[in-house]
Amino acid sequence: MTKKEGKLIVFSAPSGSGKTTIVHHLLKQDELNLDFSISATSRNSRGEEINGKDYYFISAEEFKNHIEKDNFIEWEEVYTDNFYGTLKKEVERIWELGKHVIFDIDVIGGLNIKNKFSENTLAIFVQPPSIEEMERRLRGRKTDSEEKIKERVAKAEKEMKYAKDFDVVLVNDDLDLAKKSAYNLVEKFTK
Q1: The dihedral of CA 117, 118, 124, 127: what is its sign?
Q2: What is the rounded CA–CA span in Å between residue 6 and residue 190?
Q3: Which of 17, 102, 138, 176 could form a disulfide with 126 if both were Cys (CB 3.0 to 4.6 A apart)?
Q4: Domain encompassing residue 150
């Protein structure tokens, strides 16, 4: 990694917790000096996703080559040949801009970053007020099948057990309040 290191701000949460909405809100606050870490994935793009903006879409073979070359800060194989990870060069790119890195990342990936860069990382777990509310939000999106919703709820129940391992648990039962709390946490950490 480069010598020009900034801060790492990790947002992790189960699906439907509001994590992505909070991250997008923080990215609009220029005074926080944040840039978004784009993850690499071996899955195909979905819908309107754009390579180099939403994800770096690479083949499973390319992903495995990057693993062999130790090019990732963190990575995981979510399903067979379905990889997600953070390339070292992505974090270095943001630090070279003189900015802090903000992640919208799964729970295990978030903890891996926290464990690897504990001094420079603020790890925030965004928690829905309840599993029932999270399920209601997922249904309200109307983007997932019934099977996918049940899969996400089951995964969320497992992910919630990791909340205690994060620096902060931010309960999102009021989105405006959660945005303000997230802003205050990030502002204090980056000063």
Answers
A1: positive
A2: 9
A3: 17
A4: 8-190
Number of domains in the chain: 1
Which residues, in sequence order, are bridge partners of residue 75? 85
Output the CA–CA distances (angstroms, integers) from residue 127 to 18, 61, 77, 121, 152, in the order listed. 8, 35, 24, 19, 14
Tens of pLDDT, residues 39-71:
999 998 888 889 999 899 999 999 999 999 999
Indicate the pLDDT class of residue 4, thresholds 50, 70 and 90.
Answer: low
- CB under 8 Å to 161, separation ≥6 — which residues? none
| Within a domain: 1 | no
Instruction: Answer yes or no: is 87 within a domain.
Output: yes
CA–CA separation, 83 and 85 (whole Å)? 7
